[in-house]
């Protein structure tokens, strides 16, 4: 997607109520797969919202993992080209 840039996604893992930052593109791996967040916590990639016309319930979740947030802020200070995206399934 952005081969010359780093990318971080804020996602809500399956069954979670807090957003974590990951560097694995959501959708690159199957829903339910475990991935490591920047805080080293393992979370499961969420399943797609069905039907697609329905608003994802994760959209209402704005609380972010403090440790992931710290990691993202540090990386942004070093790399202004870092792309940060909030992703909802």
Element layout with pairings:
Elements: E1 7-12, E2 19-22, E3 34-36, E4 42-44, H1 66-78, E5 83-86
In the predicted model, the low-confidence regions spanning at least 5 consecutive residues are none
Strand order of the largest sheet: 2-1-5
Shape: globular
Mean pLDDT: 89
How much strand? 15-25%
Count of separate DSSP helical elements? 1
Number of strands: 5
Major sheet summary line: 3 strands, mixed
Helix share bin: 10-25%
For the termini, the CA-CA separation is: 18 Å
Cα-based radius of gyration, to the nearest Å: 13 Å
Structural account:
There is one protein chain. This protein has 89 residues and is an alpha+beta fold. Helices cover 15% and strands 22% of the residues. It is built from 1 helix and 5 strands, in the order ββββαβ. It has one helix at residues 66-78; strands spanning 7-12, 19-22, 34-36, 42-44, 83-86. The strands form 2 sheets. It has a 3-stranded mixed sheet with strand order 2-1-5, with helices on one face. Strands 3-4 form a two-stranded antiparallel sheet. A hairpin with a 6-residue loop joins strand 1 (7-12) and strand 2 (19-22).
């Amino acid at each position: 997607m952005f081969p010359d840039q780093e990318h971080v996604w804020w996602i809500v893992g399956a069954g979670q109520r807090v957003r974590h930052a990951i560097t694995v593109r959501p959708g690159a791996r199957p829903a339910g797969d475990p991935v490591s967040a920047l805080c080293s916590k393992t979370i499961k990639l969420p399943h797609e919202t069905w039907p697609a016309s329905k608003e994802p319930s994760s959209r209402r979740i704005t609380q972010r993992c403090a440790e992931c947030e710290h990691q993202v802020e540090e990386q942004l200070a070093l790399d202004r080209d870092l792309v940060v995206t909030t992703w909802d399934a």
